[in-house]
Automatic annotation (TrEMBL):
Family: Belongs to the peptidase C19 family.
Domain USP: 197-519
Span of domain MATH: 40-171
Lineage: Eukaryota, Fungi, Dikarya, Ascomycota, Saccharomycotina
Protein name according to UniProt: ubiquitinyl hydrolase 1
CDD domains: peptidase_C19C
GO molecular function: cysteine-type deubiquitinase activity
The keyword Glycoprotein is annotated on this UniProt entry: no
Protein's organism: Maudiozyma exigua
């Protein structure tokens, strides 16, 4: 754009016809693909004397093209640069809104030499969305000034002809069907332009925003959500209510919404919000939560009616009349994208028949092995069809997820009738129309989601991209989201950087999820949702929040007009039990459970223009302070050590001054909130003692009642005093060394405000001590029993010598002095407990380290030594500090110091639960596990190093049947139970003694898993270490004989167990079962020619003739390299006279993979020969050769079958956050 310059001068003239430069309009201004032309026009501006142009800016006469008059802005000496600057500027004709107009135009500006325009010219092209904010656009450096005046290397003639120059403008005005062509989205109002609003992104919640918009525009679904009963629920822990509110706000709001309330209802923290999860995973979890919430309501099962279809998986024999099938529900379909051209091909692949013949024949019940066809067919297709396109796949070669960016087309409408079972009762044809496209732009590790939605049947598409919503064309819906096939490297290398970036963006932007609606249900599912469909309580909640938000926004706008005074007084101080003289948010942990509400200050919102006289009157009226009494107003501030103290007196003497002026004098005019302390001299501790000495009042501590009494009668009380008592009515000469006094109440274990007084710096601290004793009616002779301390800050409390002067002890304005009485401390003999503090220093230490622990009882524990709760009903009590064994609860909070010993913590928990502390087992619960507290530990050992209130984990407890110290000597065992395969397992944790036998451990497993005695007798237990087989566990083996590094596996394997039991002298754990292939040469001879294996090793000898029974070999897994071992190593029995195809089939059945996956596994064997160990890959043999091989004849016991394939048991990496909706 042109920079602001002095007023421009109109010069030159517009030719009747534009000059001819010997080029067609479309050659000068090539048509932009995909854009539609509204009109075109051109004009020539002739400048007859260039050399006379001395001003900075000139303008051409205007020329009408369409609904605009156009002119050219010329900067002959450059626009802040050396080149000539030229800009094009349209002006809307009368009748156009001056602020709301725009014009999308493609344009070219041509400089040409008059009379030689065809041969001597230069062209520059651009396009722009002109509007009231960007009224002109063009070229800041169109041409160097010298190139205009003189010939150049490429042009023998200058553009000027005797100072004459032609400037020709070509304009093509384009249609803007979406309203956002070339829009920069500055000050863009989605609601105003489209009628819709978006969601704000919390960090990485674009995938959530996209899914929510898709559901919102499935309008029948929105109505169902509104019908879920949520009247008495809180949106913080109710997903349906939070979703109802989000949907209603999308209906009525004019501004983008945030999803904080919704994600809070999920139980998510900020970490979840900044973790980009899978849309399909979120979709299924959310639907599951809503479906459960709809149970026993009028809308139960309605979600299934919309989203759930039925498919039949079947195996049908070819030569006999037999079919095995099962019908399953589906919420969405995952369709292959790789090697597919379009959606139809994906459906064809999904329903493709697999022929089961040869080695893969089907074992039909009662008919034996049969040739069969295996496949999937649809029984019913739902009204709303969610299609998950498998853009992300696991690449086993690279051992990582990759994104499939190839081109993949999806239609606007599709007929899926051909994929329905011919016996389906669903009405045909089954035609679906596309209504939603969820797009992922990016790669596997980074990316952004947005969604394209057709809200109605009127064929208008919109893009919902977090906060913004705008119209899009069908080309943007379809073509731009098909993805892009990889171009040849040769073509890529020829690209400019800009073109290459565009290529990458096109390739990495593609549809990830499609939402189709069945054509016969469109009218019902897309019916408008009105306010009458929304629950009344949802409307009321949202409107209340909008009113509150508007109120807060107004307060923010008007904040400069007001100041809020937070006013503390002595009543707050004596009712406060924490650190500092008033509640300090940084020290909240020191007092938050010991409040009674009286510690809260008075808050007054006052206009800055209010006079001081009125301010003082309001303060006194609200605190019931006599208007006749003179008081002092102190400003409270934060010291460098983050403590709060009084710091300066606020001068309120000039009663006609405004509050704003008073604050300016104090340098506080910029503050919107001021913390103040009101000092009432007649409530000074020394003055109260004077009243007591003269028998006017009686007290032994300052109470609310005493404060009220003195305030009400102070005038009368003053009159009763002798004349020689100093007056308190004039505060001008009163000392500014005001100190606060606290008392440690050892009996009630409280640190409470006692009062305040002014001091003389030259007085000794004992004088203040005498005032303290006098106030409590204690003989002054007991001054030596008084201990006094200065509360400096958290963790810093210093003892004070009564003989020291205040000046020497550095005690002054705002400081806090705490005292305790020694004679009271003698009561500690009767006041005992794990948290009892015998003196003030112990109590300050307790306040410094105290933390709030949330406890709950372990539920459904499978711990063998845990005593399970027998009562069904559990009592939950509120948070209080005096729970005992008679009010046992399963959930409670307790305050304890972070350095508390476990034994003392157990006593605190025992007091709340009624469980003997020796039998308590306590756990700290973190996201990555449950950590039991050791009996010799302190609580600090289980807290984060720099913990704060928000990082304290929840805790759980359970009651043990044996003392914890005995329990801790048990050995933790992790046991892996394999039910019917070697790729899926259940893990169980046990605690066993070192002298526990495997037979006793089997009993524990039986108790936990619940199998029969017969099944127990067939269980084989074995160990692995570093993915290698170590040995079988016999029933008499003790756990102290088993290495703690071994993993223990178990499975019902009657054949292997029976064979193992026939071995003699088996040395557990001393057999090496695998070898490194690099150390073994592959045998060059054929397996068919190898004689029977050598005799069985001594470590594994049969009790009777072994050759007729079988061999036990080890099966070990790795991927590509033997160093890359994985999975479970296990025993497998070889049967005499069994040919390899049958052996492979048995191995396949026991291993558990599907036929396709298992067929990809590369098998090899490590076997014993007279010369030693030899390795042979079985991949090099033909089927005819493999049919003749009998592994029993080749392999000995504990030889190895190797399986080369990717690890399918990959665990989550440490930074993965599994997604879960917790509420």
């Amino acid at each position: 754009m042109a920079e602001d310059q002095p007023e421009s001068v109109i010069i030159g003239n517009i030719a009747v016809e534009p000059v001819d430069i010997d080029k067609a309009f479309d050659d000068v201004l090539p048509i932009l693909p995909e854009e539609e032309t509204e009109l075109e026009g051109s004009f020539t501006w002739n400048i007859d004397d260039w050399f006379s142009l001395k001003d900075g800016k000139y303008i051409s006469p205007r020329f009408k093209i369409g609904d605009f008059e156009w002119d050219v802005l010329l900067f002959p000496n450059g626009n802040r640069n050396k080149g000539i600057a030229i800009y094009l500027e349209p002006h809307p004709l009368d009748g156009k809104d001056s602020d709301d107009w725009y014009c999308c135009a493609q344009f070219a500006i041509v400089l040409s030499r008059p009379e030689e325009d065809k041969n001597v010219n230069i062209v520059n092209r651009s396009h722009h969305r002109f509007n009231s904010n960007e009224t002109d656009w063009g070229f800041a450096n169109f041409i160097d000034q010298n190139h205009l005046k003189y010939p150049t290397k490429t042009r023998n003639t200058p553009l000027l002809h005797d100072g004459n120059l032609n400037i020709t403008v070509y304009v093509r005005v384009l249609k803007d069907p979406t309203g956002v062509l070339w829009h920069n989205f500055i000050n863009y109002d989605s609601k105003k332009i489209t009628g819709y609003v978006g969601f704000k992104n919390q960090g990485a919640t674009c995938y959530l925003n996209s899914l929510l918009q898709s559901y919102f525009f499935t309008k029948y679904f929105r109505k169902l959500v509104y019908e879920i009963p949520t009247d008495n629920e809180s949106p913080n822990n109710s997903v349906p209510l939070a979703l109802q509110k989000a949907f209603y706000q999308l209906q009525v709001s004019n501004d983008p919404l945030d999803t904080l309330e919704l994600t809070r209802s999920f139980g998510w923290d900020s970490g979840d919000a900044f973790t980009q999860h899978d849309v399909q995973e979120l979709n299924r979890i959310l639907m599951d939560r809503l479906e459960n919430k709809m149970k026993n309501t009028p809308v139960e099962g309605e979600l299934n009616e919309i989203f759930v279809g039925k498919m039949k998986s079947f195996i049908k024999c070819i030569n006999i009349d037999y079919e095995s099938s099962r019908v399953e529900d589906f919420w969405d379909l995952q369709l292959n994208v790789k090697n597919m051209k379009n959606l139809t091909e994906s459906f064809e692949s999904y329903t493709e028949l697999e022929l089961m013949n040869g080695e893969n024949q089907y074992a039909a019940q009662d008919f034996g092995l049969q040739d069969a066809e295996k496949g999937v067919i649809f029984e019913y297709l739902p009204p709303v069809l969610h299609l998950q396109l498998k853009r992300f796949e696991y690449d086993f070669n690279y051992d990582q997820l990759i994104k499939i960016n190839d081109r993949y087309e999806f239609p606007e409408s599709i007929d899926l009738s051909q994929f329905l079972d011919k016996d389906s009762k669903q009405k045909q044809p089954v035609i679906y129309n596309l209504h939603g496209v969820l797009v992922h732009a990016g790669d596997i590790s980074t990316g952004h989601y947005y969604t394209l939605i057709k809200p109605d049947t009127d064929d208008k598409w919109f893009r919902f991209d977090d906060e913004r919503v705008w119209r899009v064309t069908k080309n943007q819906v379809f073509e731009e989201n098909f993805g892009l096939n990889r171009l040849p490297d040769e073509q890529i290398r020829t690209m400019t950087r800009e073109r290459y970036q565009a290529y990458l963006l096109d390739r990495h932007t593609s549809a990830y999820m499609l939402v189709y609606i069945r054509s016969d249900m469109e009218e019902k599912l897309l019916q408008p949702v009105t306010k009458e469909d929304v629950p009344l309580h949802v409307i009321e909640q949202v409107e209340e929040e909008l009113v509150e938000r508007a109120k807060k926004e107004q307060e923010i706008r008007e904040a400069h007009l007001y100041v809020t005074l937070i006013i503390y007084n002595i009543r707050n101080f004596i009712n406060y039990y924490g650190l500092d003289p008033i509640p300090n948010e940084l020290l909240k942990f020191s007092y938050q459970d010991q409040t009674n509400g009286k510690e809260h200050a008075l808050s007054l919102k006052i206009e800055r223009t209010t006079r001081i006289e009125s301010v003082c009157k309001q303060i006194k009226d609200n605190l019931n302070i006599p208007q006749s009494q003179d008081i002092r107003y102190w400003k409270m501030g934060t010291r460098q050590n983050n403590t709060i103290r009084i710091c300066d007196i606020i001068n309120m003497d000039d009663r006609n001054m405004t509050l704003e002026a008073a604050l300016e004098n104090e340098g506080d005019e910029a503050y919107s909130t001021i913390n103040m302390y009101v000092e009432e001299p007649y409530l000074d501790l020394q003055f109260l003692n004077t009243l007591k000495t003269n028998d006017i009042i009686a007290f032994n501590e300052i109470t609310d009642e005493l404060i009220d009494d003195v305030r009400s009668h102070i005038t009368t009380y003053i009159k009763k005093l002798p004349e020689d008592v100093p007056s308190i009515s004039d505060t001008t000469d009163r000392s500014q060394q005001l100190v606060f006094i606290k008392k440690f109440d050892v009996k009630n274990q409280l640190l409470k405000g006692f009062g305040y007084t002014v001091i003389n710096e030259t007085d000794t601290i004992s004088k203040l001590g005498q005032s303290v004793l006098e106030a409590q009616n204690i003989d002054l002779k007991k001054i030596n029993e008084l201990n006094m301390f200065e509360e400096i800050n958290i963790g810093n409390t210093c003892p004070l010598s009564l003989k020291s002067q205040f000046y020497n002890a550095e005690i002054g304005m705002g400081d806090i002095i705490t005292f305790e009485l020694m004679n009271v401390l003698e009561t500690q003999e009767t006041l005992t407990g794990p948290l009892f503090c015998a003196n003030v220093l112990d109590y300050y230490n307790y306040l410094e380290h105290r933390v709030n622990l949330r406890f709950s009882k372990v539920s459904n524990s499978d711990d063998d030594y845990m005593i399970n709760e027998t009562e069904d009903n559990e009592l939950e009590i509120s948070n209080n500090a005096d729970g005992n064994a008679n009010s046992a609860s399963s959930k409670f909070n307790i305050w304890v110091p972070s350095n508390i010993k476990y034994s003392d913590l157990a006593k605190c928990v025992a007091k709340r639960t009624g469980i003997e502390p020796e039998y308590l087992k306590i756990f700290a619960i973190y996201s990555n596990g449950r950590f039991p507290l050791n009996s010799k530990s302190t609580l600090n050992d289980y807290l984060l190093k720099d913990y704060n209130c928000n990082s304290i984990p929840p805790f759980q407890y359970e009651e043990l049947s044996i003392p914890l110290k005995e329990f801790e000597h048990l050995r933790p065992i992790k046991f892996y139970w394999l039910k019917d395969s070697y790729i899926h397992y259940q893990s169980h944790e046990f605690e066993v003694a070192g002298n526990c036998s495997v037979a006793e451990f089997l009993d524990k497993i039986q108790h936990r898993l619940g199998f029969s005695e017969e099944e127990k007798s067939k269980i084989l237990l074995w160990t692995n270490y570093d993915f290698e087989f170590q040995g079988v566990l016999s029933t008499d083996t003790l756990f102290k004989q088993i290495s703690k590094q071994f993993l223990i596996f178990g499975r019902i394997l009657p054949d292997e167990l029976d064979l193992f039991n026939k071995f003699e002298n088996y040395e557990n754990g001393k057999v090496t079962s695998t070898h490194h292939l690099r150390d073994i040469d592959e045998s060059s001879s054929s397996l068919i020619d190898i004689p029977s294996a050598s005799s069985t090793p001594d470590s594994l000898r049969y009790a009777s003739n072994p050759e007729n029974e079988g061999h036990l070999v080890v099966v070990s897994q790795y991927f590509k390299d033997m160093e890359n071992k994985h999975g479970i190593s296990f025993l497998f029995n070889l049967i005499p006279n069994e040919y390899f195809p049958d052996t492979k089939r048995r191995l396949h059945m026991k291993f558990g993979l599907g036929q396709k996956e298992f067929s990809r596994i590369k098998l090899g064997i490590l076997f014993t020969t007279p010369q030693g160990k030899s390795f042979k890959s079985l991949q090099n043999y033909s089927e005819e050769e493999l049919d003749k091989i009998v592994l029993f004849d080749i392999m000995s016991n504990l030889d190895t079958i190797f399986m080369d394939h990717p690890d399918r048991l990959r665990s989550h990496v440490s930074h993965d956050r599994p997604m879960v909706i917790k509420n």
